[in-house]
Please model this.
Amino acid sequence: MPAPNPITMHWLVIFNQAVAGELVTIQSGVDKYALIFTDSSLAVTFLRDLGDQNLHVSQLETWVLKDAFLTAAGLIHATRVMFDYQAGQHEAVSAPLEGLHGFVRGRL
Model:
């Protein structure tokens, strides 16, 4: 059975409640990754490991919410998105932010 497509699943993202528009990102080389989780246990574990009480997980269930998230990621200069990142992981599913944003906007 093929793996589900993370683009069409519900997304879980981490926001900072204390700072409007602040998203959790990671930097690798020249790329800045906005993180998207499709597995709640991965999101909760990642959030717990950060240890910041101002961070929380939000679920994005619609294309409109996904579009808003990708717009915010672009505003903070993310270049790619990464799905279901785990600390120490060497490979993860990722996509160029601009391409994914175009795909999502096509669904609106």
The chain has a mean pLDDT of 91.
